[in-house]
Design brief:
This protein has helices at about 5-10, 20-40, 90-95, 120-125, 135-150, 155-180, 185-205, 210-220, 225-230, 240-255, 265-280, 280-295; strands spanning about 45, 45-55, 60-70, 80-85, 100, 110-115, 130-135. By secondary structure, it is α/β, with parallel strands linked by helices.
Length: about 325
């Protein structure tokens, strides 16, 4: 709801409700306080997943909204950092506070799973870490690069995209099939074949004058197999960032309407509260309990437990 809607609805059930301006100021203050706590806390994870979007600003330009999740095998995702109106370099201090370990507490190589947004992988991949491009975005971006080259007809571009999609699907299926059986040699073979085929098609495209698409395939020839190579070492990371894509959909529904215009502080505060509520409901509830009831707040044990939901007449 808008701040005015919030004021009106609270006024139906309570007396002395703060004004919409007071609610606005409180949300900005508390939301950015939570944002600071999130960015400064120590987290344990197996991989980072960054993504970005844009919001309409009050200045007439657009704000960059950048979000990074810290995810681990068998654990709920955690918000690593969120900024509005800043570049990806603003996330570096927060990224350094992630300790990369598996579910057993063993150190694992730091990794980042992201799409092909320019500069995103370079800025958010930890030092000496690995990058796994989202395999859902790879064929889409290849189609865009083929279009930008401006030489090939639409049907021919579709043929190349289908070929690369088939290679990636074969790699994913090979890992899913052979890893549970400890058939590592088959996975190693598929990794080598995928890299080899990417480079072969890059050479073919270069010979046809499609430099952008050729460079794209050659640049990703090793990166697309990162998840498979790490799986051989017992480190399981996602090969896509669908989780973050769904989260960005929640951001869009709440904040990306054309009639909206945001300040960077207001958008950052509200989005922090929204994202934490979605991905970390316990953290969200604990924060508000602390704000409403104080640091010493605990839920009293009344000796009552629920044994069954629903009722019979």
């Amino acid at each position: 709801m808008t701040y005015r809607n919030t004021n009106d609805e609270l006024g139906r059930v309570a007396i002395g409700v703060p004004s919409s301006h007071t609610i606005n100021r409180a949300i900005i203050e508390y939301g950015n306080e939570l944002n600071s706590e999130i960015a400064n806390r120590e987290l344990t994870a197996m991989t980072h997943q960054p993504d970005g979007t844009k919001l309409h600003s009050q200045s007439g330009r657009k704000h960059d909204v950048n979000i990074i999740l810290a995810t681990g095998m068998g654990h709920m995702p955690r918000l690593r950092s969120l900024t509005v109106g800043k570049g990806w370099d603003a996330h570096v201090p927060a990224l350094k506070k992630t300790d990369f370990r598996d579910s057993k507490g063993n150190p694992v190589p730091p990794t980042t799973v992201s799409d092909m947004e320019k500069g995103l992988a370079t800025m958010t991949t930890p030092l000496n870490g690995f990058w796994q491009p989202c395999l859902v975005h790879v064929p889409r971006h290849l189609g865009f690069e083929l279009w930008k080259d401006g030489i090939m007809e639409f049907e021919d571009r579709k043929g190349y995209v289908r070929t690369i999609t088939g290679l990636l699907r074969h790699l994913k299926n090979s890992v899913a099939c052979h890893l549970p059986k400890n058939e590592h040699d088959e996975i190693v073979h598929r990794i080598k074949q995928t890299t080899k085929e990417f480079r072969r098609w890059a050479t073919i495209l270069l010979e046809q004058g499609m430099k952008r698409a050729s460079f794209f395939l050659r640049r990703l020839s090793n990166a697309v197999t990162t998840f498979a190579s790490l799986a051989l070492r017992g480190v399981i990371i996602p090969w896509h960032n669908n989780l973050l894509e769904r989260l960005m959909g929640e951001v869009s529904k709440r904040c990306k309407h054309k009639w909206m215009s945001w300040t960077s502080r207001g958008a950052q505060a509200l989005l922090t509260l929204l994202v934490v509520r979605v991905v970390e409901p316990d953290t969200h509830a604990a924060f508000w309990n602390r704000k409403i009831f104080g640091d010493a707040y605990t839920i009293p044990n009344m000796g009552v437990s629920i044994t069954r939901l629903g009722a019979e007449c």
